[in-house]
Amino acid sequence: MYTNKLTKTIAIALCSVITLPVAAAPRLIGDVDLRPVKTSYSFFYADPNKVLLTTATVQTQLQERLIAAGLSTTPCLIPGDLNVNNLVCGSGAIRFGADFFSFNSITNIPKPNLPFTAADKDSGLDKVSIEFGVNGRSPAVNQPNETPRVVHIHFNKRIAQFGMVFDPYIVTDTPDPLEGRISDGIQFVVNGQSTPVRDLTQELRGNIPFVGVEDPHGFTDLTIISTGGGSIIGDQFTIVPLTNF
């Protein structure tokens, strides 16, 4: 009788092991793969010497202007317009590590044309600067993570999808559409597993692809690697919580 019980116990245990789900490898995604319930953040800086509004009012009114412009983007107010790190969006929804900085120089990523009002000119809301993220300081002094260039991100809840717009090129007036590439490709590391590299060498200067990663098991930490040792310049950081996947 004891032997029969032991045999049954072992059989049940083996069945349990066999039927456990295997953790799927994270996969690369594009914007068409994003689930509808998503939130996208973009960086904005409100200089207190120019914008005579409280942070809460700036947030609310910027959101209204973005919606009026037909953009489904949530403003992420950051504390400075250049070389600021440890950036946080959505009350901790996204926390960028110390290797990602605010960046106010021009990129190939277009800035939205927001419908500011006469009252916005009085309050200074129209002076809010639109920022980008980059994993390098300006000027290039004491750069972190020279090779490879990486960005670490932490989320306050399990995320199933993350993606962002990448600018693989510097802005230049050369007629050569392939001159000025700073990143060969983008790779993500999630749950200890790496995705294939999203090749950016075939992109033309001015193209700003949305590149993301998905893992149906969810993740709270993410590493982005720029292959070729080049910089990462990005905007429109989009998340889909696991609960909405």
Report helical residue fraction: 10-25%
Q: What integer is the average pLDDT?
A: 89
**Low-pLDDT ranges:** 5-21
Bin the strand percentage: 25-35%
Major pleated sheet: 14 strands, mixed
Instruction: Write down the secondary-structure element order.
Output: HEEHEEEEHEEEEEEEE
- Tally of DSSP β-strands: 14
User: Over all CA atoms, what is the radius of gyration?
Assistant: 22 Å
Intertermini distance: 47 Å
Number of helices: 3
Query: Which class do the helix and strand fractions yield?
Result: alpha+beta
Shape: globular
What does it look like?
32% of the residues are buried. Residues 5-21 have low confidence and may be disordered. By secondary structure, the chain is of the alpha+beta class. It is built from three helices and 14 strands. Strands 1, 2, 3, 4, 5, 6, 7, 8, 9, 10, 11, 12, 13 and 14 form a 14-stranded mixed sheet that branches. The chain has helices at 2-19, 55-68, 118-123, and strands at residues 27-29, 39-45, 74-77, 88-89, 94-96, 101-103, 129-130, 132-134, 149-166, 185-190, 193-194, 198-199, 210-227, 233-241. 16% of the residues lie in helices and 33% in strands.
